[in-house]
Amino acid sequence: MTTLREGFLSRRSLRRLAVLGTALALMFTIGAATAAAQSPGDPTITVGVGDDVAGGETQVTFDLHFSGTTANGTPVYIYAPQDAVDNADLTGVVGADPQIDRDPADEFTPCATRSADDFQISSDQITGLGNELVGSDADPGIVQVDTEHYGPIGLADPADPDSDALVVLAYNIVDGAYYDCDADQYTVGYFAPQFIDEDGMNVIVIDTENWDELVGNPDTTDLTIEGVIAHELQHLLHNYSDPGELSWVADALGRRIGELRGVVLVLPVRLGAGGRQRRR
Predict the structure, then answer these.
(1) How far, in Å, CA of 64 to CA of 238, rounded?
(2) Domain ranges of the chain
(3) How many Cβ atoms from other residues are within 10 Å of residue 125's Cβ?
(4) Which terminus of the chain, N or C, has less C-beta within 10 A?
(5) CA–CA distances in Å: residue 31 to residues 35, 43, 219
(6) Sequential pLDDT tens for the chain (280 residues)
(7) Secondary structure string (H, E, C) spanning the chain
(8) pTM of the prediction?
């Protein structure tokens, strides 16, 4: 199945302009029995995540590291791969270690110079990010601002009353930069409707590289994970209200939410030429 997804690219050497790019489609599949047995907020979930370049997928088990609810009642959960949080040695951790070769039999080999140290994430960072999403008495938070302007999160699975939640999956996204040592861009985050259709969850994916700079950095004038989530959440909400909306309209609305919330999103956008996958 070809996957259409919205996402951000970022400079690897410096946090510069986020741009639209093109790549091979990422595939998400999961057995019906597994999907039916999982629900947002479960302590552990298993999700099939794809490989932009080599194709195929890897089943990644995620642990719940943040749970909260906005003042207007939207549940928010943040998951990370098992053993990926507060771990000084990510060697062999699926969904974190950049040196894992997903398929040793194919022609693609992970970039040998990528260091697992760049993918370290902490429970404090996740908690801080979660608090930015759900807000407080003094601050409504990113999710509430988005939902108040663009509508509520819908039930991803009509049979699951708990599926009207936001699920954030934080892991090392396998894209072109996973293999290409010369790549100066990588996917920072995206929304894919296939998570709704196939997993019954409202998912936004965020990459775990360079969180020391990209998470909890209010003084930056460039990209932040908080801004990426605010932008991609608008796309998720828009998918419920008008899934056929023109891409430039949806993108403009995504930028508007940054102004409303006061988080750093992206600067001017370059549209990718062709391709089945749209990244923001």
Answers:
(1) 26
(2) 26-213
(3) 22
(4) N
(5) 6, 19, 43
(6) 334 455 655 544 333 333 333 332 333 333 444 444 799 999 999 999 988 898 888 999 999 999 999 999 999 999 999 999 999 999 999 999 999 998 999 999 999 999 999 999 999 999 999 999 999 988 889 999 989 888 899 999 999 999 999 999 999 999 999 999 999 888 999 998 999 999 999 999 999 999 998 998 766 656 689 888 988 898 899 888 655 554 534 554 455 555 554 444 443 322 222 222 223 3
(7) CCCCCEEEEEECCCCCCCCCCCCCCCCCCCCHHHHHHCCCCCCEEEEEEECCCCCCEEEEEEEEEEEEECCCCCEEEEEEECCCECCCCCCCCCCCCCCCCCCCCCCCCCCCCCCHHHHCECHHHHHHHHHHHHCCCCCCHHHHHHHHHHCCCCCCCCCCCCCCCEEEEEECCCCHHHHCCCCCEEEEEEECCHHHHHHCCEEEEEECCCHHHHCCCCCCCCCCHHHHHHHHHHHHHHHHHCCCCCHHHHHHHHHHHHHHHCCCCCCCCCCCCCCCCCCC
(8) 0.81
Residue with structure tokens 């209200």? 241
Q: Could you tell me the two tokens for 144? A: 């509430």
Residue appearing with tokens 């601002």: 145
